[in-house]
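Hey, resending since the last one bounced:
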Amino acid sequence: MSAGDKIKAAADKVKGEVKEAVGKITDDDKLVAEGKADQAKGHLKDAAEDVKDTFKK
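The structure tokens again:
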């Protein structure tokens, strides 16, 4: 996994965590859902890169 890809995946996770937290504080279910979706997107990017790395070896 390249450093840029790691940073992008981590950024999605952090952005999602922040959105989810703000959504919980403001009682905004839509924002909570968006946050969870962003976190899932970050985890999927990590998984995809892990698969790429596995096949490169």
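The chain has a mean pLDDT of 91.

Sorry for the duplicate.
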